[in-house]
Amino acid sequence: MRPHGPGAAGIPKDDADVATLVCGSCHRQYTTNKPPTPGKTHRCEACGGILVAPPGSPETARPPTAPPAPEPPIPPDAAPAPKAGDPGPSEGRAFGAYRIRRVLGRGAMGVVYEALDAEGRRVALKTLLANPNELRRDADRFLREIRLGIQLPPHPAMVRMLEAGVIDDKPYFSMEFIEGGSLAEWRKAHPGALRDEVALLRDVARAIHHAHAHGIIHRDLKPQNILVDSAGKPHVTDLGMAKTVGAEASLALTAAGMAVGSPTYMSPEQARGLKSVDGRTDIWSIGVMLYEVLTGRAPFMAKTPIQVLHQVVREPVPPPAVVAKEKGLPPPDPALSSVALRALAKKPEDRFKTAGDLADALEAWLEGRAVPIAPPSAAAADQFPRPAPAAAGSKPPGLFRRWARRMAGWLRRTR
Question: What is the CATH number of domain 181-382?
């Protein structure tokens, strides 16, 4: 299939075997020597819109063999300006090629739905709401999540991004649907499941090591951002606060993370707003979750987020055995306590060198082997690679650039 415009050279006009399709969004035309496959959705290479046969063509005259395709996305330049407080798509209604089924989660920035795509597959659909007070910050975070989701190669313990675009003047992206709930919900349903949760955190550490190996730091790891499926396997989600290795975190995003994120899971260097934060901040966050498994509470607790951040930066981590004794709990496993305390070292260079090393330590405990906890080393400071350049001919960067232009147009209309 190749694109062309009116009168393009080399395109036969009287060949009965040549079919013409038109993008319903940007009206770009394509020719193909094979008729479109019934029931299959073809998309425009330029804008991602759905390709349809032009009116009066032989393709439109044929009896339909499948339900008609949903309405194509509205081009961003033709869409109305979003309204403040717009609640987003309604349950049971169509949203472009998607059919909304129910709301999975709702926040100040956006809404996540369970939806069906054009092929009838269940997906998680996230839309950005038009909040005039936080529009620029929210749009930056949404765009960041799209860019990094496209950049990150698939991993079994990371939620996979499927598609992104703008429909009815609402930016969105779709992800694979995970049947289950968050790790926070899983904990409530499985109290005291020590080995199972250690296995979950081991898999999370493997997934985070995968992200670090591709130059992405999550920066917002917490139980609410880890989904557990019906088979008990974890899936890390929400890259809205993530950054690439070597990139400086914007002050707006850092401030937003402190205000609306969870200071409980922030590393000391992130709590201080340092621009040199690297992958070891994620190791700290996993350490907090392991500490919770051992003691039933976070290392630092206070009445306000600011007080928690102060403790994270300045106070030592209470030994798990001391906290367990105060709560009347049995003494926690010494080896797991050592792993948690190593991950929660105040200085990044005193933690595990990589998330993979943390996963190895948890794996050793699960298998009954001696837990390898190497002595701290300042050499750990340069363990996280910068992102590799995109391979020649790869599509994701171009896809992101096109999506970013649409997002920029959406932002201009909201000013």
Answer: 1.10.510.10
